[in-house]
Amino acid sequence: xxQEFEKWVARVLLLNSALALGVSLGLLGERQPAxxxxxxxxxxxLGFLSAVLSLKRWKLGLxxxxxxxxxxLVSVYPLAGGWQFAVKAGVSIGLVLRFHSxxxxxxxxxxxxxxxTAAVLAWRWRAPAR
Length: 130
Hints:
This protein has helices spanning 2-24, 37-55, 59-72, 108-126; strands spanning 74-78, 94-98, 102-107. The protein is an alpha+beta fold. It is globular and about 50 Å long.
């Protein structure tokens, strides 16, 4: 049963990263700022390569998938301008938190998929080696 869940997690990562690649290459969605494209493309490639490794059942693929989702977990937008952080790759549903100095967005899809990936990693950690 857990192996089927692991396959599902890998397939969702593959789909999510393929969407992110489409966005970073300008094939899907609105045009992205030029300064954001290298980070977006790198994140999408990280997710895509991690998905391929996960489908082959390599733990490194799961670790890469966890990093892929962790990069998307939080976006920060200060109201006064200055340094911002946002990686929106794949699918995103955000919980917006407004503060006096800025806005923080928590990506709930990335959070759920990070938790699913962490569950598979924990299961693989405890599972006896074959």
